[in-house]
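Narrative of activities, Objective 1.

The group set out to show that a structural description can be obtained from nothing but a protein's sequence at a throughput compatible with the screening campaign. Below is one input-output pair from the validation batch, recorded exactly as produced.
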Amino acid sequence: MRVLAIETSCDETAVAVYDSQRGLLAHQVHSQVALHAAFGGVVPELASRDHVSKLLPLIESTLNETGTPQDELDGVAYTAGPGLIGALLVGAAVARSYAFARGLPALGVHHLEGHLLAPMLEDDPPKYPFVALLVSGGHTLLAQVEGLGRYQIVGSTLDDAAGEAFDKTAKAMGLPYPGGPALAAMAETGRPDRFDFPRPMLDRPGLDFSFSGLKTAVVTTLRQLQQEGAPLDEQTRADVASSFQEAVVETLAAKCMRALKHTGAKTLVVAGGVGANRALRARLLSIGQRHGVTVRYPRLEFCTDNAAMIAYVGCQRLMAGECDELNIRAVARWPIDSLLAP
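Output recorded for this entry:
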């Protein structure tokens, strides 16, 4: 089966073509970072309008890259949720209309299922079962993954996601948008032990997360430094960034180890945009080597939002006989543990 996939859940317009025998044939992503930078964050209406203008040319360009005639496609997959409802509707409407016009089956895919299974795009994919840490700007959760559509959430965030905490902390420090990567870059030259920020919820049992208090602790520290007349020079700012990042990384790593012990799994998959963080990768790989745990990541380009992961999941479910009806499907909130195996 050869599947065309569309991803428009937030501020990336993405298209991919996946073949069940040959694997990923092509994928392209148009980023809206420059569009939203002036506002310091994603403006939903602007995101939707940009998807409208970019999506059809991107479909044509991706199909041309693969040399795939439209009559050789066997199905269409698209992100149906969760995400910004206006952005989702653009992708869903185009995908469903395209499939209807070509007489193809169409399927709405769960965005987080795409992230969880993004490592399956690699030449040596992980074997089920495994524990997955999904950590991004909008989500932080731990899941036990037994197979396609078989997910048990064992831990989730009670407030801010880790990526959201990165972005909000970066904004408080006056860093440019997108804040998370800027903060991580600054942290590389800082001292991670200068400021003793809290490790949220590590002092209690369980696998849930909470990062809003950590963000508040950083803001309070910055305010105290200013009140005391301490210079907020580049080194101090780098130390704040590094100490914050260390608190997040230590918290995520400790919860991952708890989840592995709780489930008995020997493989940890890390997915989502924060999964590209080099400090987090290094820490988890080190812990994995010490404890005999295999740690797997998708390649960096598949950590952030992309259509390749949607194409993979869509292809697997379409081959299993799943297909949407003619309605356009878009859901802003959609719990991943409500999914069923095909």
